[in-house]
Structure formats: structure tokens, C-alpha cells
Amino acid sequence: MKTIVTVVTVLCVSLLATVRAGAEEADLVLQNGVIWTVDDERPRAEAIASLRDRIVYVGTNRGVREYISEETRVIDLDGKLVVPGFNDNHVHFESTGRLLYGLNLLDVSDERGFADRIREVHERYSPGTWITGGDWSAYETWAEGDVAEAGREVNPDDLYGNLFLPNKGMVDGFTGDRPVLARRFDRKVYLANSAALEIAGIRKGSPDPAGIAVERDSNGEPTGALFNPVSGAVESTVLVQDNVRALFDPLIPEPSRRQRIQETRRTWDQMKRVGVTSYSDVTSAPIQVDVYRELREKGQMTARVRYRPPLDQWESLANLGIRVGFGDEWIRFGAVKAWIDGIMGNSSARFYEPYTHNPSSRGIWRDIMFPFERSPDNPEDMQSRLERLALQADAAGLQLTVHAIGDEANGYLMDMLERIIEKNGERDRRFRLVHAQVMTDRDIERAGAMNIVAEVQPFHVSDDMRWMEERIGRDRSRGAYAFRRLWDAGAVVCFGSDSPGTNASRYYLNPMLGLYAAVTRKTLSGQPEGGWFPQEKLTVEEAIKAYTLNTAYAAYEEDIKGSITVGKLADFVILSDNLLTMNPDNIKDVKVLTTVVGGKVVYEGG
Ligand SMILES: [Zn+2]
Fold it and tell me: How far is the CA of 556 from the centre of ligand 1 (A)?
């Protein structure tokens, strides 16, 4: 009898335990919303519950009730849209932080703005830190969102353009012994204050440093303006030899730890505001990883990072046992990166045929392509240094990510990938073609057949279409940012920002700009009507997936993030408008109301 009682008791206890587990209390519940989960099994829901850092329930308002206890924070969504947290596939984190926390002069082209902005940074920075960069006069040349005259001819008598020219007197009064080296957006001209001139030894009576023209007043006193040598015939191919930077670089100390921490916090702050909960850091110095570690230990990290060292360091990673997936949910490694050609901004991307506006150039290959040598396993076979490194890194279990803009650069990578597959065998390698900007029809098909990941940043469409056809013609432009065809061919199209943008345009991390560009293919000012090569548009549902689940897949993390699914990390955002039903022309203005990372509300906007 005693045995029976025990059995019954055990049964009752375990039954209770089951019921309790099913009705687990949650820390956080969101209800009465439109939840777009990006999970094909259950695309829509009304409510979500999370416990600690994981999602424990996705379903109906009724079903979520049993997760609510007195301690649960309940957010009434009032019909608002919730989507998974955005995952940015390509962030220049360090430069984004430097610009957000430091000097931004893109929209400045007068004395007042110049002095005011530098004063703000002067008050923010610790004593002794150099104020650098800024890129003044960018919008004087390229009105934001407008169609620019990028292919215009340069007046050979005035290669520097008739733009705003500052002098040291505008800032010396308040900067004191803090050095300032501001830059014009095109790097043709810099402005040094007296403290910076003194450090570089540029004084009244001193000879000009080699390759730099020092502007002087009638007394021979340097005004602070420093001119680089410039040559070129067309605005978009003007070559600048940046001697000023070469002179000053060794004189400017590395940013302090304190400065890096401030810049990191400032960038995460921006990420929270725009709903970015994960990102790939593609170019920061290795010290940045230690800053991440410190802030993470302090519980201050609010976005998850995947850090990518350069390909030519693959061996030290492999020797440490680092492979795809190394790390944890906050800081992870496993991919390496390389660049093989230039960019469209100065027409240095590599093409099969010459540029339309500059028939003497097909663009450039980056240094990593050289030397071309005989392959170690086949003397008939000539191989780039890139390919040798890529073969080894791939064999060591690292993920390859390579920047390619021009059609020849992309084509070369497709050829190379075929050879890597042949030599190292088939596996789940998720080769990331970074930018995949201009591709031939054949390469789009090959990219699909090899299931590559197209690591694209759709806002480039809005930005670049303004001058793309002038530079490469209508026919080649058809293969530019061909998201629809890449998607349909079988490539995994994933999205990001390329923050902080270019010298001519800044777009700090905001995923709404990318979604807008992918769905409308228009500039910020809404041109052209109907969109540029509108056959390449994605639907808004696809665009959201590209910015969430597909970026998670690109980083081998689709099992833990990228959709609102039970068991995954509780990373999601509440938006001001319903992306799924609104006029796509207004997507660029949608705001993030709330950002949740790992079940914690990290941002609540006004
Ligand atoms: Zn980039």
C-alpha cells in the first residue's frame, strides 16, 4: 500500500511539474501586436513571451496569458509591428564610432559651422586627443539624396574646385594646444590648426614638406590649409596622392582606451535606436575585441558582434583552434576577410571592360592579388596570393568573405570558389561575396548554383544609382545590385549598412534605409519614379528576412537568432509603422520604438 501511495505521489508531483513547465512564467511579454516572425512555420503571431535571454512562447494573446505573473513586464503593443532584431552584415565599427563621437563636417561649408562643430568635439574629447577627419564640403558637392553631376569634367585650371576653404584662425582661439587636422571630403585639402602645424614642423620660413603645398598669408605665415597633389580629367576619377595623411599619420597617437570605450558606447547607442541587435565588425583594430570583452563583462553590451580578422592572419587563428562558430552569443569569430578590387566611389572597382566615362581604365586589383605565382600543386597553374591564402584558410575551417565590386572582381571570385570546391571538397562553407555589386548574368547564375552568401548593403543602390550609368553604362548597370536575380538563382542575399557610409554620404546603421532601398530602388528623394531597374526589387517580407534570418544564416547562427521562434534569443524590435502594409516610399522614415536584446529592453524611444 505504501508503495502505491508513493507511486501516486510521484505521479502527481511529476504531473504538476509538467503543468508548471508548460506555464512557465516569463520576464517579458509583448501582446496585442502584429508579430512578423520570419519563421515559415508560423509567420504571424499576436504575442511573445521571453524568459531570461530566450523566447519561450510565440502565439496568441490568449495563449500568452499563462506566462504572465506579477513580476512579468507586460508591453501592450497596441497593434504595432514586431520583427526580429536587425542583424547588420557589414559594419566598420571603429570608424562609425569615431565619426559618431568625433567630428562630422559632411554638411558643413562655412566658417560658423566649421568652428561650431570643432568646438563641440573639443569639449567632448579628453585633453591631448587629436581631432581629425570631418570631410567638410561633401554636401556642397553632392546634395544628399539628389542626383549628382558625378561625371562632370574637371576644369584643368582649378583641380581643387571652388569650395569652402577654412583657416586655422577659425579654431585656434579655443582649441589651444589640442591638435586639429580636419579633412575635406575628397582629401584634396586638409586644415591643421596651429598646434598640429607646430607638431609637424610647418612654420613661417620652413620649407613645405615634400609633396604638400602649404598655403601662406602675405607674411609667409601658414594659414593651416594644406594641399595634396591632384590629377585627373573627370571628377569621379580624380587621383589624390594623400601626402598630408602620410605626413601626419605617424604623429597622431592611437586613440586612448577611454576614447575607444566612449566611441563604442556611442555606436551601440545608435544601434539600439535603429534596432540593430547583431552585427559583423569588418575592420576594427584587434584592440576593439578587448573593449568588447570589458564592456560585456560589465553587462553593458547591447548588440552581439561577429569580429572578422583579415584573411592573411588565417594561420594564427587556425593555430589557436579558432574555426567557424568560435566564441559565444555575444562575441564570435570564425570568418576572415579580404578585398580584391577598388570601389565605385573613385572608379577603382575592377571591370572586364573599361569605364564608360574613362576608357583608359578598368579599375584596380588590390595588393593581396599579388604576386601571381605557380601553384604549389600544379606548376601549370598560375595562382594569386589571395587564392593560396583562401585555399588554406578554407581547409582550416574558416569562413571566407571577400570584397568584390566590379564584374571582373566578382567573376574572379566565382572562378576561385569553383577551384576551392574542387580542391577542398564540398562542404557547408557559406562563402560570403562582399558587396556583390556588379555581376554578369553568368556569374549571378554561378553564385546561385554554389549557394554563395551575397553580403550586400542595399542602401548603396539609392546612393550609387545617381552616377552608376554614367560610369559603366546602362547594360552593365543591369547587373548592379541584382538582388532579385541573385535571390531567385539560389544565393542567400543578406543585408547590412556598410556604416558609416562613404566620404560623400553617411548612413549610420539605420536598417530602414536599406529596406527602403531594396523594396523601392529609389534615391532618398524618391527618384526615379517606379525605381531603378525595378525588376530587381525584393518584397518587404524578403527584405526583412535578408536583414534578419539570412544574416544569421550567413554567420551560421540561424539556429539561435534571425526569427521570432521559441528557443531562440529574445532579440526583437517594435516599430512605429507596419512595414508589411504601408506605402514603401515611407519605409525610410519608420522609427524603432523599442529594442529588446536577450530579453532585456535596451531602448525605448520617444
Ligand atoms: Zn565596407
Answer: 21
496 C-alpha to ligand 1 centroid (Å)? 10
* pLDDT tens per residue, range 17-41: 434 445 579 999 999 999 999 999 9
Say how many Å lie between the CA of residue 90 and the centre of ligand 1.
6
Helices (H), 178-300: 194-199, 243-248, 257-274, 287-297
Q: How far apart are CA 51 and CA 70, in angstroms?
A: 14
Instruction: With beta carbons less than 8 A apart as the criterion, state whether 550 and 495 touch.
Output: yes
Residues of the chain with pLDDT > 70: what percent? 91
How, if at all, do strands 331-332 and 335-339 pair?
Answer: unpaired
CA atoms within a 13 Å half-sphere pointing along the CA-CB vector of 599: 19
What spacing in Å lies between the alpha carbon of 571 and ligand 1's midpoint? 25
The torsion defined by the Cα of 430, 432, 436 and 441, in degrees rounded to 10, comes to -30
Check: CB of residue 183 under 8 Å from CB of residue 164. no
In order, the DSSP letters of 42-77 are: S-EESEEEEETTEEEEEE-HHHHGGG--TT-EEEE-
Q: Radius of gyration over alpha carbons of the chain, in Å?
A: 27
Contact 509, 100 (CB under 8 A): no
SS (H, E, C) 112-158: HHHHHHHHHHHHHCCCCCCEEEEEECHHHHCCCCCCCCCCCECCCCC
pLDDT digits (tens, 9 = 90+) for 299-321: 999 999 999 999 999 999 999 99
Distance 106 CA to ligand 1 centre (A): 19
Q: 528 preceded by cis ω (within 30°)?
A: yes
Distance 91 CA to ligand 1 centre (A): 7
CA of 510 to the centre of ligand 1 (A): 15
pTM: 0.91
The CA 120 to ligand 1 mean position distance, Å, reads 28
State in Å: Cα 396 to ligand 1 middle.
Answer: 25
End-to-end CA distance of the chain: 66
Please, are residues 580 and 541 in contact by the beta-carbon 8 Å criterion?
Answer: yes
CA distance 412 to 433: 11
Surrounding residues of ion ligand 1, Cβ less than 5 A: 498
Return the DSSP state at 365.
B
Residue in the structure block whose three cell numbers are 565590386:
405
